[in-house]
Amino acid sequence: MKKLFLYIFLLITTISLGADVVELKLPKSDIIVLKLMFKNGSICDVKGKEGITSMTADMIAEGGTTILTSSEIQDKIYPWAASMSVSVDKQVSIFTFEVHKDHLNDFYPIILDLFISPRFAEDDFNRIRSNQLNYVSEVIRSSSDEEYSKKYLEDLLFRGTNMQHLVQGTVSGVEAIHLDDVKQHYHNFFGNANLTIGIAGNYSSEFLSQIKSDFSKLPAAASAIPQPGKGRQPNSFEVEIVAKDNALGSAIFAGFPMDLTRANDDFAALMVANSWLGEHRKSYSRLYQKIREQRSMNYGDYTYIEWYNNGGGNMLPRPGFPRSSNYFSIWLRPVQTAKGLKGQYPELKDIEIGHAHFAIRMALREMGQMITTGINKEDFELTRTFLRSYMKLYAQTPEQQLGYLLDSKFYGRKDWLKEADVLLGNLTVEQVNTAMAKYWQTKNMFIAIITDKSEAVPLARSLRDNLDSPMSYSNVLKGVLTPEILNEDKLVQNYVMKVSNINIIDSNTTFK
């Protein structure tokens, strides 16, 4: 009997606690930001209906309520300069609402109704489903080969797990989703038990209490949240070349699973190493200097120790994409194909492949030397100083600040940006070099390459047979290069890459 009473007490206590809350009090701010983070994401997609979490989130955010249609909501909130949006990633779905405090009392009932009584109308479903289907069937393969390569690497690295498919799903998955499936998914995975509420601004304690009370009425998610899949361990280099018509270059994304996230203090040490090797959009890093600056091969070359969303559009990392299943990656922005080089320079009419093989070898060689020799004291100090200043730019608005606090909650931290600054301040060069040796390697990687059909077969042969890949320069460029660069090229062109598996994939068959 005592055990029964204890069970009932614990059950009531759990229910009454409701969602977790993350607060950011800003007494001088006139803007209220509300974020609702559900720990679900695309890992919760039903097998055979990949993309349903993203579709359900869009239906909530863009489908209106039983009282107001989506267009009626937009008409009402426009004079208030209010905004609402949703982003879905592999492990979270985050709804963001912003409004001036003077209009909060008018906006909040609409926000609440989106979750308590979503409209789920057939016309909204058809619109959202059509847009999502267009993305997975056409847009991802045609709009940006760089983004295509990043998403394809995840397909390769996480193959066979719930982390494999696009957040937006697959063609067959989206086609299989019906409105009733969305309604069921909403009940299964959008509940108060997996919800964290974030609020920022000059809000009252009464309003916060109201939010807690109102969202505690949201039913608990009916289904358990699955564990995210882990990345596969590559055997030497495993390469997949996606061949498409009229690709302007070879977009390359490579990586391997890494058992490290912001939850671990070692992450700060790898931040320094990563910044020195390939900080996103920074010209001082080694890969940028070697591949772009010295050899004019492409627009940029970067490395990452966690997922960086929309790297082509975002100069700074955005919050809202926390993941516990992580990997290291190298992004080589498109380099020229043989077809492109031949068309520009008559002196290169006899080459068989473009710059892809050389660029990969250059990146691996630089990274390998860094792991072996370590970063020196001077470069360590300069990079650490830069990072401690640079990270202050990550959260310049209340919305970004709150986003990073929610990410911190996900990783079991209180305020990652502040904690990272402390970790960086206490860091030593020895800790950075130790972390590199522990978490990084250059012998086993998955490599995804999006390239023109004319390049696919000769590039595959060069990689598979570990052929020399001499750098192909125009006569004008070669004439101004230093002997040091040309001598280094000879070392790079036969850098040993043991490729254990290589496949050529038709672009039209991907993400189906």
Q: What can be said about this structure in brief?
A:
By secondary structure, this protein is an alpha/beta fold. The protein has helices spanning 2-17, 52-62, 70-77, 104-116, 122-142, 145-157, 171-175, 179-189, 205-216, 266-278, 286-293, 338-344, 356-373, 377-390, 398-410, 416-426, 429-439, 453-464, 475-478, 483-492; strands spanning 20-25, 31-38, 83-88, 93-100, 195-201, 237-244, 250-257, 301-304, 327-335, 445-452, 499-506. Helix content is 45%, strand content 16%.
Write a concise keyword list for the protein shown above.
2 domains; Cytochrome Bc1 Complex, Chain A, domain 1; six-stranded mixed beta sheet; alpha/beta; 45% helix; globular; 512 residues; 11 strands; single chain; five-stranded mixed beta sheet; disordered N terminus; 20 helices
Structure description:
The longest helix is centred in the first third of the chain and has 21 residues, at 122-142. This protein is of the alpha/beta class and 512 residues long. It has two domains: 15-216, 2-Layer Sandwich (Cytochrome Bc1 Complex, Chain A, domain 1), CATH 3.30.830; 237-309 and 317-509, Cytochrome Bc1 Complex, Chain A, domain 1, CATH 3.30.830. Helix 2 crosses helix 5, helix 2 packs across helix 8 and helix 10 (266-278) crosses helix 14. The strands form two sheets. A six-stranded mixed β-sheet has the order 8-9-7-10-6-11. A five-stranded mixed β-sheet has the order 1-5-2-4-3, sandwiched between helices. The N and C termini lie far apart (55 Å). The chain is built from 20 helices and eleven strands. A hairpin with a 4-residue loop joins strand 3 and strand 4 (93-100). It has helices spanning 2-17, 52-62, 70-77, 104-116, 122-142, 145-157, 171-175, 179-189, 205-216, 266-278, 286-293, 338-344, 356-373, 377-390, 398-410, 416-426, 429-439, 453-464, 475-478, 483-492; strands at residues 20-25, 31-38, 83-88, 93-100, 195-201, 237-244, 250-257, 301-304, 327-335, 445-452, 499-506. The model is unreliable at 1-17 (pLDDT under 50).
